[in-house]
Amino acid sequence: xSNLQQRVISAIVMxxxxxxxxxLGGLPFxxxxxxIAALIFYEWTRMERAGNGAxxxxxxxxxxxxxxxxxxxxxxxxxxxxxxxxxVAVAAIAAWxxxxxxxxxxxxxxxxxxxxxxxxxxxxxxxxxxAILFLFAVVWATDIAAYFVGRAxxxxxxxxxxxPGKTQSGAVGGAVGGLAAGLLxxxxxxxxxxxxxxxxxxxxxxxxxxxxxxxSWVKRRHGAKDSSNLIPGxxxxxxxxxGLVAAALALYVIGWVAAGxxxxxxxxxxx
Length: 271
Prior knowledge:
By secondary structure, the protein is mainly α. It has one domain. It is built from 9 helices and 2 strands; from the N terminus they run ααααααββααα. A two-stranded antiparallel ribbon has the order 1-2. α5 packs across α6 (126-153) and α6 (126-153) packs across α9 (237-259). It is globular. The N and C termini lie far apart (46 Å).
């Protein structure tokens, strides 16, 4: 089987599973978010420990398991955020005491906020479903448009020292594609605040590209081509969700400001 065939099959399976669990919401989607957090943490620590070993032993694993248990258990958003702060502080203090770098504490932060923001965006029944679909539409369209526009137009590199393959034309094309997809989803959902949602879509598209660059920087720092080889033809989970989790956190914050921490989707797509 060629690499392209593997990529296509893996993409279809991942998209179908993701959309099915998103539709179900509730506990199945929280389990999905917990799995994403666990896999992100695994890949982050795998890259870090390849060169430095497990400086904190199994403490980071214990901390992320506490977070995942609280997430799946449905702890209220603000309490869960407080728990994340405590868990990260424990990891950071342990690293400081041992004279180790803060990368494993950073991994706890990155993984926990990724799972948290996705899970709580989906809360809110219909509003949560539309908010997550809006997020997917923007991020996926950004990736696709950036790839094809970058290949077709070429031109100056976006960040050659971090990700040599990305171009400025691709970034602009991605932003336009993300904006268009977000507006189409908003129109299809019957949302009335199209100007506001268009601005949100544009912001999410930009943030998702920044998230992609951040993950590329992390991999380059650790001398890794992919975050892992868990997904045939695609590399690792981080390679596939880097832009998504960055945009999810941004969308959660926007929704929190508009409607509160528990059901942020209501601030974007009122019932």
